């Protein structure tokens, strides 16, 4: 799954004529040693992807990892040393860094929210709000940051949302249809906006409930209503600042969309040494 993504990124950058600048300036036989280093504190994710970018340009490239994915680093720390044909290193540089900076940014933001709830049982989970084509990588980055994955796609769990309920007519009907169609291994979760809807979902014996955009007070009451009969997931307007109070309500999961769709990159550079 990963190699086609990296090949596509390299093709996008190299186009029809290759790296005009590097090929004109750097001798074909030149060898270089460079370091991947952080320029700000953060958590690393995507080293294997970055490594693949260099290796696909020239398999003679050698990468020595100092800090593996999941490591928390300060600004200026050397993540890895890259040695090989200089042309290959320069040509692959931007594609490698695009992946590494993006995925490390996701891991860094995930780690911040995970840290905010560390005194509670709640797990931080991502959503399907991902960059098209990069979902597997972005969900990997969430795990590198200490988070957990929600469903990967529409095909690995049933999540009955407000529009499904509106079209089905009510929660009971939607759950009954889902249970009839889904296999016995498939979990069923229902999104609810109110405590009345939660009561209906519990009556339908669902596996999990998504408590959408509820206040802390509502979440506390919802957890008490569920009483362990289903997995409780809080969602909506979650930040590193609000996550602690949400986790204190006793929910099992807190889903956060922005850690994948809006996380800023972690600034990482490739420099000659």
From TrEMBL:
Transmembrane segments: none annotated. It catalyses: nicotinate beta-D-ribonucleotide + CO2 + diphosphate = quinolinate + 5-phospho-alpha-D-ribose 1-diphosphate + 2 H(+). Residues 106-271 form the Quinolinate phosphoribosyl transferase C-terminal domain. Its EC number is 2.4.2.19. One of its GO terms (biological process) is quinolinate catabolic process. Pathway: Cofactor biosynthesis; NAD(+) biosynthesis; nicotinate D-ribonucleotide from quinolinate: step 1/1. Keywords: Glycosyltransferase, Pyridine nucleotide biosynthesis, Transferase. One of its GO terms (cellular component) is cytoplasm. It holds the Pfam family QRPTase_N. It is an enzyme of class 2 (transferase). Hexamer formed by 3 homodimers. Belongs to the NadC/ModD family. This is Probable nicotinate-nucleotide pyrophosphorylase [carboxylating].
């Amino acid at each position: 799954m990963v190699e086609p993504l990296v090949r596509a990124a390299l093709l996008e950058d190299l186009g029809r004529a290759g790296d005009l600048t590097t090929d004109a300036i750097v001798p074909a036989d030149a060898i270089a040693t460079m370091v991947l280093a952080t320029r700000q504190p953060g958590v690393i994710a995507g080293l294997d992807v970055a490594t693949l970018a260099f290796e696909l340009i020239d398999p003679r490239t050698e990468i020595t990892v100092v800090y593996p994915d999941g490591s928390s680093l300060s600004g200026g720390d050397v993540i890895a040393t890259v040695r090989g044909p200089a042309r290959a290193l320069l040509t692959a540089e931007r594609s490698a860094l695009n992946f590494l900076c993006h995925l490390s940014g996701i891991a860094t933001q995930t780690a911040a929210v995970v840290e905010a709830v560390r005194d509670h049982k709640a797990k931080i989970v991502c959503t399907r709000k991902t960059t098209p084509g990069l979902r597997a990588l972005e969900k990997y980055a969430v795990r590198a940051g200490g988070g957990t994955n929600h469903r990967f796609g529409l095909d690995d769990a049933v999540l009955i949302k407000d529009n499904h309920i509106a079209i089905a007519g009510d929660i009971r009907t939607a759950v009954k249809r889902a249970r009839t169609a889904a296999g016995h291994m498939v979990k069923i979760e229902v999104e609810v906006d109110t405590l009345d809807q939660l009561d209906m979902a519990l009556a339908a014996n669902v596996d999990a409930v998504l408590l959408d955009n509820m206040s802390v007070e509502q979440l506390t009451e919802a957890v008490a209503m569920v009483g362990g009969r289903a997995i409780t997931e809080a969602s909506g307007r979650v930040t590193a600042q609000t996550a602690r109070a949400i986790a204190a309500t006793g929910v099992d999961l807190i889903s956060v969309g922005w850690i994948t769709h809006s996380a800023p990159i972690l600034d990482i550079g490739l420099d000659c040494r």
